[in-house]
Specification:
Length: 106
């Protein structure tokens, strides 16, 4: 994969290599998946939520849950990447004193 090879030339990426796990490959895979999640959110889910058509509260709830799944997928790839993992540290620290609950949980 071209992107993985390009990223592998960067020392700030390869310093996170660990044995068989190559950060360049992890990032290249993440970028491909992230592109899909962002497109789904921006081109499908957000327009449905913003549309003028009447949506029932259940339909809105379903859309919000679909968005949650895309965001969870995005966070997974941020966490999976050692290069970007530090972005999650403030979220972990802020959430530790007052954890939220997942939508639909009581």
């Amino acid at each position: 994969m071209f992107l993985a090879k390009r990223l592998a030339t960067c020392a700030s990426v390869t310093k996170y290599d660990a044995g068989e796990r190559k950060e360049a490959g992890t990032l290249a895979h993440a970028f491909a998946d992230l592109e899909e999640s962002f497109r789904t959110f921006l081109n499908e889910l957000l327009p449905k939520l913003m549309s003028k058509e009447n949506l029932t509260p259940d339909e809105i709830d379903d859309l919000l849950l679909e968005i949650l799944h895309e965001f969870r997928h995005i966070l997974y790839h941020i966490k999976d990447s050692k290069y970007y993992w530090y972005l999650l540290e403030p979220l972990v620290l802020e959430g530790s004193s007052e954890p939220g609950s997942a939508p639909g949980s009581v």
